[in-house]
Request: fold
Amino acid sequence: MAYKLIDNYREQGARKKLVALLKERGIADEKVLAAIGKVPRHYFFDETFWNQAYKDIAFPIGEGQTISQPYTVAYQTELLHVRKGNKVLEIGTGSGYQTCILVELGAKVYTIERQEKLYERTKEVLPKMGYQPEFFLGDGSLGIPEHAPYDQILVTAGAPVVPEVLLKQLKIGGILVIPVGDSNEQKMVTVLRVSETEYEKIVLDTFRFVPLVGDQAW
Ligand code: SAM
Reply:
């Protein structure tokens, strides 16, 4: 895929409209909206498809995977309550779009992808865009224990259950956001680590993600 890093008025205008649409759909966190308004989503598309980049839709990125729908990215990000300097683990780098949003919020991001081609692509493209997360290739269903604990863990693929191993990698007060369900639909779940042994779980809206594939997943 050929990437062009050119941000024209047309794309900037489309991005503003997308932010307005997400606001209408209920995204209220101004910092999240500002990050969406800043990251050039068309950079993740071949130029032929730039007219699709600011629609509120998921889109194929190769390897049978998708760049998430902007509403889904905003929804998950809002639930994380990221503050400047937070240490965030993102499981499922995909295109790297969500990764850029987290970096825009001032997080130190550790992002892991199991598909080598996607990992190689994001590792090349994101630094050219000015985003410098830490990239990992491997099974994110196990987390990245060597860099734990995290303030937030975000899973961007649908899991059959909440992997216990991820809960153990949260700081006390840390939040896990993960879609949980079967292959057709998942409920967005947040888990707050209240203490060494206690967790508070909240089950929210229904989404449809590609599967989380791995040792603690499908
Ligand atoms: N948020 C990403 C974006 O906007 O581009 C989209 C992520 S896509 C919906 C989910 C990603 O999770 C896919 O790239 C998939 O390969 C990856 N994935 C699935 N299972 C994984 C695992 N066990 N470890 C790491 N990545 C995984």
Q: What stands out?
A: The first helix runs from residue 9 to 24. Residues 65-207 form a domain with the Rossmann fold fold (CATH 3.40.50.150). Strands lie at 59-62, 65-67, 87-91, 108-113, 134-137, 150-155, 170-181, 186-193, 199-207.
